[in-house]
């Protein structure tokens, strides 16, 4: 069978391109987070493996509910990261605890570097994502149900119950997933995106732009 070398070449490029965080080159790389950072690497440097301890691989960061009262949308996300769980450095994953108050909303957002899979521990959630053809996929989750949000796609989580809070736990496929909220990435940037751009993009007038900015605390 003949294969077209050019096609193979593009296929290989594609395979390399869609990889998540690079694979670790050692068993582990306990993040060195104490010193003020002077050298910037793609990630954090490792401590000497001789000094690795079980405590580097454990955290209670997700054991307590986040406070949802301070957030007008009623949600609080607690993440593992290289500071509270330094043993996860270079391993390409993050865990998140998401507390959502009654009728609270984690508004449409993306994680540019990670896919996310969530399991609903408590409550009932309406979750969904939008693919690049603008198709919406939504699902109502009951306790124990899981849902996956593909990498980089806009998604949301809404607590359908007006009184009971919800708790969901997510795994993300990067140690630094990043998060961009669609609303704040357009209306509360620093400096502001020029009004004319927002007016045209959203087909609204200048008053609308100011009102939305103010409502979002921008
Ligand atoms: C999330 O909850 C933690 C723990 O209660 C709190 O310290 C933090 O300020 C909360 N974050 C927001 C954005 O409300």
TrEMBL record:
GO molecular function: manganese ion binding; superoxide dismutase activity
SS bond list: 29-46
Substrates-to-products reaction catalysed: 2 superoxide + 2 H(+) = H2O2 + O2
N-terminal signal peptide: 1-20
UniProt-annotated binding residues for Mn(2+): 109, 111, 116, 155
Domain Cupin type-1 intervals: 60-210
GO cellular component: apoplast; plasmodesma
InterPro entries noted in UniProt: Cupin_1 (IPR006045), Germin (IPR001929), Germin_Mn-BS (IPR019780), RmlC-like_jellyroll (IPR014710), RmlC_Cupin_sf (IPR011051)
GO biological process, one term: plasmodesmata-mediated intercellular transport
Residue positions binding oxalate: 111, 116
Signal among keywords: yes
One family name in Pfam for this protein: Cupin_1
Keywords associated with the record: Apoplast, Disulfide bond, Manganese, Metal-binding, Secreted, Signal
Cell compartment(s), UniProt: Secreted, Extracellular space, Apoplast
Family from the record: Belongs to the germin family.
Known partners and oligomeric status: Monomer. In the absence of manganese, it forms tetrameric and pentameric forms which show superoxide dismutase activity.
Annotated function: May interact with bacterial adhesins thereby protecting the reproductive tissues from microbial attack. Has no oxalate oxidase activity.
Protein name: Germin-like protein
């Amino acid at each position: 069978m003949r294969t077209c070398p050019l096609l193979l070449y593009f296929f290989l490029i594609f395979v390399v391109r869609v990889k998540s965080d690079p694979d670790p080159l050692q068993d582990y790389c306990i993040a060195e987070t104490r010193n003020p950072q002077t050298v910037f690497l793609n990630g954090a440097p490792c401590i000497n493996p001789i000094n690795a301890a079980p405590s580097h691989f454990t955290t209670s960061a997700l054991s307590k509910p986040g406070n949802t009262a301070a957030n007008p949308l009623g949600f609080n996300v607690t993440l593992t990261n290289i500071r509270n769980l330094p043993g996860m450095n270079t391993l390409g994953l993050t865990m998140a605890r998401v507390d959502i108050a009654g009728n609270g909303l984690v508004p449409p957002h993306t994680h540019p570097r990670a896919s996310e899979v969530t399991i609903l521990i408590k409550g009932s959630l309406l979750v969904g994502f939008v693919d690049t053809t603008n198709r919406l996929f939504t699902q109502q989750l009951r306790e124990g149900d899981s849902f996956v949000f593909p990498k980089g796609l806009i998604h949301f989580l809404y607590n359908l119950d007006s009184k009971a809070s919800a708790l969901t736990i997510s795994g993300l496929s990067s140690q630094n997933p990043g998060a961009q909220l669609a609303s704040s990435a357009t209306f509360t940037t620093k400096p502001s995106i020029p009004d004319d751009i927002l007016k045209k993009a959203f087909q609204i007038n200048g008053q609308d732009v100011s009102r939305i900015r103010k409502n979002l605390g921008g």
